[in-house]
Input
Amino acid sequence: LLTNSFSHQNTHSFKLFIMLQKRSIFRSSNSLVNFEESKFKDNIVQKLGGEDQFQFLVISFCERIRDDHLLNKCYKGLDEKGLIELQKDMILTSFLDVSPSEYQTLRSKLLLRHHAIFQEGVPEKHYEALEKNFVGAMRDVWVEEAVVELCKGHFAAIRSFLEDCSSMMRQSKMEEDAYVNRLSFRMTGQIVCAQ
Output
């Protein structure tokens, strides 16, 4: 019994140590959104419990992403810091109360910063898994049910962002393929003419 208690205490201490490490990653991340200078829809960050509670929410969300087979596969190229930065930026961008032009600018910056993740496009089931895990993370950190529902509504902006990313990546791929085809046709035509 004493050994079990000691083992449980060590496990708890280790989890606390890992959480503190992740919080330092969160704080040192180069976010697109400045907490102190930003205004959020429905005062959502305060309703979540403030900046510290929001940190725990994002960290819990990232842990859930790593445990989700589909999402972990999508984000396999990101280390812990990169995943935390991406999710923090995506969530905060969806919560911001800004003009449409400022929102578009942030979305563009988000896409540019994390373009490698979005290159292949984003399937619908990816968004559904993100939302399910985000809701689960909110419940993990004891967010009130009314605030969970409010956050789900704002989180829907991420679906729009992911759909736009997929559309832009498909368009970019089509343009790239068309360019390669034109170049290939020109080179083939030059070879035929030379013979």
